[in-house]
Amino acid sequence: MGLNRIDLLIIAAYLAGITLFGLRFRKRQRTMRDYFLADRNIPWWAIALSIVAAETSTLTIISIPGLAYDSNLTFLQVVMGYVIGRVIISFVLLPQYFRGELYTAYQLIERRFGPELRTVTAALFLLTRAAAEGVRVYAVSIVVSIALGTGEVASIAIIMLLTLIYTFEGGLAAVIWTDVVQTFIYVGGTLVGLVTILHLVPGGWGAVEAIASGLHKFQVFDLHFFDPTISAHRPHFDFAKPYTLWAGIIGGAFLTTASHGTDQLIVQRLLAARNQRQSVLALLSSGVAVFFQFGLFLLVGVMLFAYYQVPSSAFGRADRIYPTFIVSRMPHGIAGLLIAAILAAAMSNLSAALNSLSSSSIMDFYLRIRPTVSEAARLRLARLATLGWALVLFGLAVLALDRVGRVVEVGLQIASVAYGALLGVFLLGVLTKRANQRGATVGMICGLAMELYLWGWSQVAFTWWVAIGTCVTFMVGYAASGLLSVQSKA
Known about the structure:
Largest sheet: 2 strands, antiparallel
Structural class: mainly alpha
Mean pLDDT: 87
CATH superfamily: Sodium/glucose cotransporter
């Protein structure tokens, strides 16, 4: 069926409207505190929605339904871990962030260990966040090229340019408040899409339930942690399955503790709260919203399977199923709304990445070299850094074309490679007094090496990587701190 003029008008109206809305915040940007922390005057509910939007990209909306299409609802086990991780952050890390005036997560590392380790952790964030974000931006091209036929590179350029305009001018305030609007758009659009799919499936919900139940599509829990094929007499721990209950809860908790507790993308939002209590409230309420959201996306995938009942290979890849359905089967108007909803998720995630990469670049690197730069010059440099990172992410997204598999898992894998080392160092600083900078650096190197090994040469599922990397970093760092301390005294 394809999109018609009504759909294209809805998409164009959204793109123009959200860009102009973000530009409204330009006049409020007078200092670095305004640009990077929104003057710490954002209400908790807006931060909560912004957190949800920041961790929801196009790859989430198109790849999670594809995941459920190919399997079932067991990814929800990982989301349960996401909620647990938020509770851990609230008690362990957030109290540390609200002691003093911090702009980035890595200032906490300098306060505890020293400037060298701050440089290492901030650099690791910049590298892995840029790489993971490049994959997320690439996911945008899948949707836009299917919907508009503009070609993948042109599709990336369109979204990048429009997002850059309001992020460049409005800073974190523009990012957060556009996130709020975009969250309502993509969640509302997905709900409309779900109801529409239900009406298009012959037999309605009864048919969906019969088809999905017969193939165990509604399965949420996978309690198998042992692989019986290895040995019937000596059970073997199965770390290769990514979505078991234990991999989901333990792995998801470690992943979120790292991503929301040590990654500037989320920490920056938590620091923009009016006080620690509101920051905790924002973080915990975002967990409830995320659980609902992932359940919604997974259910869309199950219903799409009930509609098509063909292998995902018929679409080329599972990530193409949902956008293809929207363009070819949805009624006009609703199709345009859903494409706009997917673009809303893409732009909210991209704007968050640009602002966090810019803040870390300026605060963790440039201003440490030239601390006497005037406030006006700092603000100008912050905007230039935002522009620079936009160009970098555009290049990485183009490089990712046709080089990645299921994009949601690739994005999580890239982030997970560094998260274990980062979280291990933060926990060494917060939970121990014995750890020192040299020992923590040794632990971080070992943890990162372990995660690189898990990524490139093992069969261990990515859901375990952060937990393993964190434990290696923490134990090696703690032991090395003791040994190096004894040697220095000798």
